Amino acid sequence: MKSEPVPSEQRSALLALQRATHATLQLIAAELVDLDLTASEINALANLADGRGRTVSELGAAVGTRPTTLTGVLDRLERRGHITRGTRAGDRRSVLIELTPDGRLAADTVQQTLTDLEHRALGRLSAAEVAGFHAVLQALTKASV
């Protein structure tokens, strides 16, 4: 008896994750097209949406990129008037990234879009299924450090 070939999405969790990531990024970009932001800029604003300022190193860790890579993203966000860069009280060597009022509006829009998408995508899953998904993401993150 000949067995059916296994679809590629069942062979590799990483390929399935990559495919889902690309589809999600395309959907987010389409929903936020009016903001005219790159995926990296959206990621940075989403991580600043809580209103807490972060150093470049902290933001780099939150968005999953090196501070040197993040510099170009921050340059663009600063030129657009979404962020400011200043010094942290008590540590003049540390650069603190904070949202401007326009950045706060953009970050709120980004955050609401991500929340809506997450509810649409995961809303029918059980809490245990969502927890399992997060466990997989954490394992992948740990493996890549």
Note down, in words, how this protein is organized.
The chain has 145 residues and is mainly alpha-helical. Helices cover 64% and strands 12% of the residues. It is built from 7 helices and 3 strands, in the order αααβααββαα. The protein has a 3-stranded antiparallel β-sheet with strand order 1-3-2. The protein is globular and about 65 Å long. The model has no long low-confidence stretch (mean pLDDT 91).
Short structural description:
With 145 residues, this protein is mainly α. The chain has 7 helices and 3 strands, in the order H-H-H-E-H-H-E-E-H-H.
Salient structural properties:
mainly alpha; three-stranded antiparallel beta sheet; 64% helix; 3 strands; 145 residues; 12% strand; 7 helices
**Averaged pLDDT, please?**
91
Q: Sheet with the most strands?
A: 3 strands, antiparallel
* CA(first)-CA(last) distance: 44 Å
- The oligomeric status of these chains comes to single chain
Strand content is: 5-15%
Order of helices and strands: HHHEHHEEHH
Alpha-beta classification:
mainly alpha
**Rg over CA atoms:** 18 Å
How does the overall form come out from the CA principal axes? globular
What is the helix content? 55-70%
Uncertain regions spanning at least 5 consecutive residues: none
List the SSEs and their pairings:
Layout: H1 8-11, H2 13-31, H3 39-48, E1 54-55, H4 56-63, H5 67-79, E2 83-88, E3 91-99, H6 101-122, H7 127-143
Antiparallel strand pairs: 1-3, 2-3
